[in-house]
């Protein structure tokens, strides 16, 4: 599903304005990038605790990664991507963003990552976090190196596309 979503975005980028699919649908529709990444990141999430069998939401994992990387003040080779991630999550944690819900925040974060061309770097940062080992079991994406490399390769394709993200998708960060 992710390969199809990335391929559709690439084709849309190089077609004329008269393309049959809208960018919003390609990003957020049923076969879009956001649902594909949400499905990938949802697979292998561990239950929150032994007593609560509920599985955490993807945004809860993203928030843990945010807390982890925002505390680290070391010089990191991917510092611009980390700073971008921290800035975007902070924007989504403002009180004005509470009305969109956790899935809406995840959708907006992915759209911001696409717009800034750093989604694959964010994904790598998430994979290297301590939160990944706490949130994911052995079937999770961050425990399968070959699949992780494939996904990051697909996301890297989006880096140089300069995809303009509709303001309606990132409305709570534009105020």
Q: How would you sum up this structure, described in words?
A:
The protein starts with a helix and ends in an 18-residue tail after the last helix. The protein contains 9 helices and no strands. It has 175 residues and is mostly helical. The relative contact order is 0.17. The radius of gyration is 16 Å and the shape is globular.
Draw up the topology in text:
Blueprint lengths: L1 H13 L8 H6 L4 H10 L15 H14 L7 H14 L8 H16 L2 H10 L1 H6 L9 H13 L18
Helix pairs in contact: 1-9, 3-6, 4-5, 4-6, 5-6, 7-9
TL;DR of this structure?
The chain is mostly helical and 175 residues long.
Descriptors:
175 residues, mainly alpha, 58% helix, 0% strand
Largest sheet: none
Number of DSSP helical runs? 9
Mean pLDDT: 83
pLDDT < 50 stretches: none
Number of strands: 0
Shape field? globular
